[in-house]
Amino acid sequence: LMRVAWKTKSIPSAWCRAVTIFIPKEKDSHNISQFREIALLNVEGKIFFSVMATRMTSYLLANKYIDTSCQKAGVPGFPGCVEHSVMIWDQIQTA
């Protein structure tokens, strides 16, 4: 099914939908803020889009479409969050 979707460039609509379930955070919850949302997704769709994201990231990195000196979010192997946190901390210390 995934190979057919890849070759035909047509994704089943079920792969693009989620069912949202509200789970109460506390017993006897009545207010919407007392619930946690959980999105249930199609497993085949999650696998397909995960493979696509991995392939696209590899292609973009290999062909230098992503400048990892400034773009780190979502790029595996680049600890941008820690680096940016340290930069912010340094700025706070020197302020």
Automatic annotation (TrEMBL):
Protein name: Uncharacterized protein
Organism per entry: Cirrhinus mrigala
